[in-house]
Design goal:
30% helix
């Protein structure tokens, strides 16, 4: 398990630095976890949160030298003990378009 994993990734010439809360692997693949506090995000907020996990996926793949990777993105909501698993997590080519 990797906790508070630092990363730096360039997507379409934009350098993004950050830390992933947790990353671990089991028989189903990699799991990237981001803990959130507060209320459950609105539908509109989930769009931005999915982009956050997409950046984490790209960064993790680069850090591990992976071309493609199976992964499960998860937001763990600490206040409600809910686990949100986004259905759509954009790939690097679509990430820039969603940011514009």
């Amino acid at each position: 398990m990797f906790v508070e994993q630092p990363f730096e990734v360039s997507i379409d010439g934009i350098v993004i630095r950050g830390r992933m809360d947790a990353v671990f692997r089991d028989e189903s693949g990699w799991h990237i976890v981001d803990w959130k506090t507060g209320q459950l995000p609105s539908r509109a907020d989930m769009r931005y949160l999915m982009m956050q996990l997409a950046v984490y996926r790209i960064a993790w793949a680069q850090l591990r030298g992976l071309i493609q990777m199976r992964f499960t993105p998860r937001f763990i909501m600490c206040v409600t003990t809910s686990c949100l698993v986004p259905i759509i997590c954009p790939a690097s080519g679509k990430l820039r378009k969603r940011c514009d």
